[in-house]
Amino acid sequence: MLKNWFALGKKPKTFEFQCACCGEIHKGSPSFSYAHPTQYGWLLEDERQKRAELSGDTCVIDGEEYYVRTILEIPISGVEEPFTWGLWVSQSKESFERYVESFNNDQSKDGSFGWLTVTIQAYDRTTQDQEFENVACDVEWQGNGARPRLIPHQSDHPLYNDFVAGISWGRAIEIAQTVMHPSG
Ligand SMILES: [Zn+2]
Asked: Where are the domains of the chain?
């Protein structure tokens, strides 16, 4: 989708819109992130200190659940910068330990598998039995301290389609408004 734009010789634009919820002009491609995996949010305040270790990039619960923070980029048609999500995915013990041990090195030739275990309001497909989006992802590790990038596996989840095909300007506004003003 983006390629067509460039082929037409149109200059990619900077994203901005006047918000239908608050009336303000929100400038720049939307970027939203989660401060921790959902599982961490389930813990009560005092349990968090006893049972979990959380940093800006990693989370471990009960010494047996492992999560890393990653970036998912969704192209917006005709826009230079993608719609960016900061999301947590689960990791196997082996992958997590390798990730942490090599954290200060160039990790760009390495990667892992992870399940997207957050709930994204704008994409919510969760049910009572299925509490997360449960999108299978390849996690591409990076060099120079950048967060790993998510590559969703092919599925019928709309997140996969948006990742591959990109989203329209209008859809980007819709998603951004849903996230910024959940009740509106
Ligand atoms: Zn707004």
From this structure: 2-180
